[in-house]
Amino acid sequence: MTQEIHGTVADGFEAVREEFAAFVAGERADYEGQLCAYVHGRKVVDLWAGTGADALYGVFSSTKGAAYLVVALLVQDGTLELDRKVTYYWPEFAAEGKGALTVRDLLAHRAGVVGTDTGFTLAELADDRQLAERLADQRPFWRPGTAFGYHALGAGALAGEVVRRATGRTLQEVYQERIRIPYGLDFHLGLPAPEEPRFRTTQPMVPTPEQQAVLDATPTGPHSLASIAFNGNAAEPTDLVSLPNMPLIRAKGPASVGGVASARGLAGMYAAAISEVGEQPALLKPDTVAEFGQVHSTGHDLVARAHKSFGLGFQMTADTWHPVLGAGTIGHSGAGGSQAFADPWSGLSYGYTRRRFAFPGGAAPENDRLVRAVHTAALAL
Question: Which controlled-vocabulary keywords does the entry list (predicted)?
Fold first, then answer.
């Protein structure tokens, strides 16, 4: 039975609803997902299927977008300086030859500390301060600054420790005080206990035989960079799919993967980043958006073993995922299938969540058609 489509679209965005309905009609009968978009700070798409509008999902690495938005705010304030050495704020990071690395290179996934030789416990993965302490002591897996690779589970902790040393506040606290509360965002780095009933557990991927063959053809050994980056070398290797289902992860909200959000929360955060929303001004000035959306690392990602592009933390969404978007689009996808970004050229801010882990990981394939439909409608305004 096809899921019913709920929600609203603004005039001119009817084709987005049709595209969402067409996609859902071809999905499993138990599909759950949400789609939300803003244009110049005005909500124009608010759709969902298979669940309530207020359901919350684990958004995996889409969490990193919130972390980098905090850093961008602090750079804009003058509290952080991108070309300072990391050790100016965090002296212990100098261990094992990392002393010359700048904050700019740290954000651009160039530090080389994608994990540790022995992996992390669940308690460490949930606690950014513990994670940062372990990473500070770790010998880098490549000479810092000479190459890049996705710091999948540690990027938020690394950025967060710089934030904590510079401000005396955790990244999660700054996010709560300056971003989530003022803009009323349904995007949590640390899910409050009263909100727990709204959380929908992540469901495992159900690959087709053809998809399973692709997965089986690309194995990774436990001591490969990819495995280290995703904690596959730990005594108890991390099951990525189950991370948001763990109460400790949801409660502490680690800044790499621990966020819990609705599509409204994802899109609303990026709308706030670049646009006035209601009576609230945009969080970032255009020059800040441009600097954080400038390509800093592009080419062969040593962890992903594929072409990737990063700005200052944010994925270069137009290069990595959706080429219809404007240059300098800032955003971040999540392993379960979530996608979120802000395109400063069109004024489009986008958020998508789904419950079941999508093949092959990262932004779910349906985002291609949904982003095109929303972007086309936004440009026609």
Answer: Hydrolase
Tokens at 65, concatenated:
């977008």
Tens of pLDDT, residues 215-244: 888 767 889 999 999 999 999 999 999 999
Structure tokens at 344: 């400063």
DSSP string across 104-161:
HHHHTT-S--SS-TT---HHHHH-HHHHHHHHHHSPPSS-TTS-----TTTHHHHHHH
d(CA 159, CA 74): 11
User: How many residues are listed for the chain in this entry?
Assistant: 381
Whole-number Å distance between alpha carbons of 69 and 103: 15
Question: What global pTM score does this model have?
Answer: 0.97
337 in Cβ contact with 358 (< 8 Å): yes
pLDDT, tens digit (0-9, with 9 covering 90-100), for 180-223: 999 999 999 999 999 999 999 999 999 888 888 888 887 678 89
Task: Tell me which DSSP letter residue 188 carries.
Answer: E
Strand partners, 167: none
Question: CA 132, CA 125: separation in Å to the nearest integer?
Answer: 10
Give residues with Cβ within 8 angstroms of 251, minimum separation 6: 126, 190, 191, 193
**With contact defined as beta carbons under 8 Å apart, do 253 and 56 qualify?**
no
Max CA distance (Å), the chain: 59
Q: Do 171 and 163 form a contact (C-beta atoms < 8 A)?
A: yes
Asked if 87 and 93 touch (Cβ cutoff 8 Å), the reply is: yes
φ, ψ of residue 371 to 5 degrees: the values are -60, -45
Contact partners, residue 267, CB within 8 Å, separation at least 6: 36, 37, 38, 43, 340, 349, 350, 351
pLDDT of residue 53: 87
What CA–CA distance (Å, rounded) separates 262 from 248?
Answer: 19
Any bridge partners for residue 341, and if so which?
Answer: 331, 350
- The CB density around residue 117, as the number of other CB atoms within 10 Å, is 10
Contact between 88 and 101 (Cβ < 8 Å): no
